[in-house]
Specification:
Helices cover 69% and strands 0% of the residues. By secondary structure, it is mostly helical. It has a domain of 40 residues. It starts with 10 loop residues before the first helix and ends with a helix.
Length: 67
């Protein structure tokens, strides 16, 4: 006896996956851009903003992912 399996991907499922990937890539871009801009600031500029270099990664994560 043969077992046949019908595997189909619905367009709705695929579009949802693509939307999720696009959103993840967009958030990653925001993270990288924010971190790059913060790293380019001088110590004086960071002090004026009340930031320390050790805070930059966390700040960029919060900007991109809201964590």
């Amino acid at each position: 006896m043969a077992l046949a399996t019908d595997i189909r991907t619905s367009d709705a499922g695929l579009s949802q996956v693509l939307a999720t990937v696009r959103e993840a890539l967009a958030r990653r871009k925001v993270y990288r851009q924010t971190l790059s801009e913060l790293r380019s600031l001088s110590e004086r500029e960071l002090n004026d903003l009340g930031m320390h270099r050790s805070m930059l990664t966390r700040i960029a994560l919060e900007a991109a992912y809201g964590k």
